[in-house]
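Sample pair:
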Amino acid sequence: MDVNAAVAAVAAIAGVLTGVIAMLAFRFSEREQRRPTRTSLHTDPVLPPGVDTVLSVLRSSAVVLDEADGVVKASSAAYALGLVRGGKLAVEPMLQMARDTRRDGEIRQVELDLPRRGTGRGEALAVSARVAPLGSRLVLLLVEDLTEARRIEAVRRDFVANVSHELKTPVGALSLLSEAVMDASDDPEAVERFAGRMQIEATRLTNLVQELIDLSRVQNDDPLEDAEPIRVDELVAEAIDRCRHAAGTKEITMASNVLVPEGLDQGGAGRRAGGIADLHVWGNRGQLAAALGNLVENAVNYSPARTRVGIAARTVAQPGGDLIEIAVTDQGIGISDKDKERIFERFYRVDPARSRATGGTGLGLAIVKHVAASHGGEVTVWSAEGQGSTFTLRLPEAGAARARARAHQMSHRDETEGLDGEAGRSPHSSPHSSDPSAYATLPSPEVLP
């Protein structure tokens, strides 16, 4: 009896101990499951609440790094710039900044020039990188692309420098010439000679200021506000008339396949050639006349004596509407390949010495480029050194351009009564507009004996 009681007591005690041990093991297992392991600290980082949303609306490229320099979050812009590759930050200076910030918690910023991804031309991306701690374990990297801002600043700086230089030259010349006139007051011939030089410099200064005003106007104004259908032959006639004296002085023949209106081709070096008539473009008459006049004037200025300048026009069919092409061809010195990339820049001159001799300001082609772009067209150039150049001005034909301008204005304002009246009339069109042969390309002219 005593033996049985002892066995039962031992069994009870053993059961209690087994239960206690099982309960302790269960609790210990739960605690271990809840405790984050070192591995989970590195592989499963969690962004603070709201950070993901903020990063998604930032214009800057954003990258979030964990303690092992792994990328937790990266915006699409960061991938586009080539900052993140293979799940890692690919820019070593930025990676070192992130490590330093993780170590001491200080915010750091630096500007870097990075190689442009996917190009072999050596171009660089200018970026500003800012690194800051994000919580206790993460680091935030924000990268701003400064390339376009730097380019605009360089253009502005060059423009100011060029304007200052261009204004300083004639102003300085006028100052010196005025002193010379005062010193030669008792020499009528010297006074007359110096006065003539003063007139030349004053004219150059006036032309420069006027072209600066014209360039500012075409960059800031909307030419389609005062748009009207314009006959191409009238634009050609104005351009020829503008350059008639200079062409006659150099015995340069100006030929065109555009029928010049009667009364605008009397005398001088110009001549009429029967051809395409009734071509119309839609735009600002003053700006288009200035653009075409600049092209013809350049052709005359850069052509040798007793050569030919050709002006030809044609209609080119395009899916979005017909285009009018006006090509100006000369037999001048030509333009090198490296210069062709820059000739439409403000104040750029292929031959500075010739420009000074002809009174050029270096703004004419820049004005042509902006006028063409503001009218929905473009200007292109073909040139070979020693053979001459052809500048082609492409503009929407009046019907297509007028419809496009009308739709643009109707989307911005409700006052369309005048446009509605114009829309009821058939646009001017050429009977030859669908015939490519209507563009009578001038043969390559030779120097006239």
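The radius of gyration is 37 Å.
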